[in-house]
């Protein structure tokens, strides 16, 4: 009966709203790693070190040599919806180049963990700043000796949201998600030196010397690296003007895994999970791949900005091509030709 003033509907308190929102941004330790690594890349880092304990549930530390933050910056950065990357929606429409822009990662991760940030602006000769948050409350801000750049540490993720904590999988599973995230960013950014350590042991490190083959060797090891064939097509070798270049490496049809996870597609320098591009590559192999087996791929498409939209979805990195069919056909053809040249597929695969 809605004629009286009673209602069963109530406005959620801020704390509850924040914890629900946190659940969307931070599903598991790997989501924290992803947000921090993206921030380090956006901060123009040339070195990013990821160190985790117990699959990230105990501790996650991401350290970079990026542009760092002043005390005023870092106090601001942990507040709700604060970002240095856009000012309004027109920035998004004109296509921002940063990985972040929502201004919610530090705030929401801070709300569901104990967060410590140590940071010092590049070129500063003063001490740095250390800021500590517990469950979203600033506990302490102090001066600290630290190198230029930023180190963000998360302890006891989900300590105050037991329901979330319950959904965490085993240490090995949580770590494998973290490994996937760091691997993707390391492959997408061969000019950045990445390292990943788990429980005190280094899992991999890359040199940051902008050598894709060397990066593949560092993350996937020798067996995979030696099975990879180079793809390199420039605009003048491609039929029409919608792709500037297709570069990267694909494995021979024998070197495969049982998931598509090792097919890394990058558009205009950023990691973009494109099912369409992956399928185009798979079709190039024709029937040379065993059933449910997928190759290793690290491919970079350079597409003129007018033909691609990379910021269509605020949370997930998605991409929309003006001429998806045309682009996929060219990717397929290019990979197919390279495999043919190396005698890895017999004839042109049947058109699907
Ligand atoms: P977003 O990345 O969407 O802007 P975040 O909550 O992830 O939002 O970060 C908020 C702000 O904090 C960033 O816009 C940036 O100015 C600053 N920041 C975060 N991480 C770093 C870092 N590693 N180095 C320098 N600045 C950082
Ligand atoms: Mg961010």
Automatic annotation (TrEMBL):
One of its GO terms (biological process) is mismatch repair. Keywords: DNA damage, DNA repair, Endonuclease, Hydrolase, Nuclease. One of its GO terms (cellular component) is mismatch repair complex. One of its GO terms (molecular function) is ATP binding. The keyword Signal does not apply. Residues 216-340 form the DNA mismatch repair protein S5 domain. It comes from the Archaea. Transmembrane segments: none annotated. Belongs to the DNA mismatch repair MutL/HexB family. This protein is involved in the repair of mismatches in DNA. It is required for dam-dependent methyl-directed DNA mismatch repair. May act as a 'molecular matchmaker', a protein that promotes the formation of a stable complex between two or more DNA-binding proteins in an ATP-dependent manner without itself being part of a final effector complex. This is DNA mismatch repair protein MutL. It comes from Haladaptatus pallidirubidus. The chain holds residues 3 to 354 of 701 of the full protein.
């Amino acid at each position: 009966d809605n004629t009286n003033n009673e209602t069963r509907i109530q406005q959620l308190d801020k704390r509850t709203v924040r914890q629900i929102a946190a659940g969307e941004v931070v599903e598991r330790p790997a989501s924290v790693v992803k947000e921090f690594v993206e921030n380090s890349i956006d901060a123009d880092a040339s070195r990013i070190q990821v160190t985790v304990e117990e699959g990230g549930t105990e501790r996650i530390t991401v350290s970079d040599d990026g542009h760092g933050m002043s005390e005023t910056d870092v106090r601001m950065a942990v507040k709700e919806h604060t970002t240095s990357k856009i000012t309004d929606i027109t920035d998004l429409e004109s296509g921002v180049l940063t990985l972040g822009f929502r201004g919610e990662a530090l705030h929401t991760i801070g709300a569901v963990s104990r967060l410590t940030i140590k940071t010092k602006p590049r070129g500063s000769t003063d001490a740095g700043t250390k800021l500590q948050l517990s469950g979203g409350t600033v506990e302490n801000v102090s001066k600290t000796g630290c190198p230029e750049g930023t180190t963000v540490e998360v302890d006891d993720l989900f300590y105050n949201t037991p329901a979330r904590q319950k959904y965490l999988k085993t240490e090995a599973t949580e770590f494998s998600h973290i490994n996937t995230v760091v691997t993707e960013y390391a492959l997408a950014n061969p000019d950045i030196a990445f390292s990943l350590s788990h429980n005190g042991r280094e899992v991999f490190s890359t040199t940051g010397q902008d050598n894709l083959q060397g990066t593949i060797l560092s993350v996937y090891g020798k067996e995979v690296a030696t099975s990879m064939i180079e793809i390199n097509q420039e605009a003048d070798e491609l039929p029409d003007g919608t792709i500037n270049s297709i570069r990267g490496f694909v494995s021979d049809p024998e070197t495969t895994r049982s998931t598509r996870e090792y097919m890394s597609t990058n558009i205009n320098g950023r990691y973009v999970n494109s099912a369409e591009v992956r399928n185009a590559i798979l079709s190039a192999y024709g029937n040379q791949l065993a059933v449910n087996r997928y190759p290793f791929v690290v491919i970079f498409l350079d597409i003129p900005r007018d033909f691609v939209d990379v910021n269509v979805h605020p949370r997930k990195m998605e991409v929309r091509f003006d001429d998806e069919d045309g682009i996929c056909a060219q990717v397929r053809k290019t990979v197919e030709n390279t495999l043919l040249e190396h005698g890895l597929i017999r004839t042109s695969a049947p058109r699907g």
